[in-house]
Write a structure and sequence with these properties.
Blueprint: E1 3-5, H1 8-16, H2 26-36, H3 40-45, E2 53-60, E3 68-73, E4 79-87, E5 90-98, H4 101-113
Antiparallel strand pairs: 1-2, 2-3, 3-4, 4-5
Length: 114
């Protein structure tokens, strides 16, 4: 399982965006749907969740390109974990899946503390 480290700039960047631009190709557009039954539009919706919970930068396993994680809800209240990178200001979703039980508990606790 990936591990993440807090990243202050990521929080500022996420909350400063009014609109996000996304980058999809044949590989990343279908992977989450095939593996986790998460559509591309659902993965994008997480970034518009006012209570998005950035996990930070991925520290393990090591990756060549910086990766980040975030927990959030879709417009239909589906709880998702999204792994992504940022390329030229555009979000490239690497994977999106339903949150595990512990992730959902952390997300819900963070919302209560706001």
């Amino acid at each position: 399982m990936a591990k993440f480290e807090f990243s202050g700039w990521l929080i500022q960047w996420l909350f400063a965006q009014e609109m996000f631009q996304f980058e999809w190709d044949a590989g990343n557009a279908t992977k989450s749907q095939q593996k986790h039954d998460v559509e591309t539009n659902e993965a994008e919706e997480v970034f518009y969740d006012e209570s998005i919970f950035p996990l930070g930068a991925q520290t393990e396993p090591a990756v060549a390109e910086p990766r980040f994680g975030a927990l959030g809800k879709t417009f239909s209240a589906r709880h998702l974990h999204v792994a992504f990178t940022v390329r030229d200001g555009r979000v490239r979703v690497i994977s999106a899946r339903p949150m595990h039980r512990k992730e959902k508990m952390s997300y819900e606790q963070a919302i209560r503390e706001e």
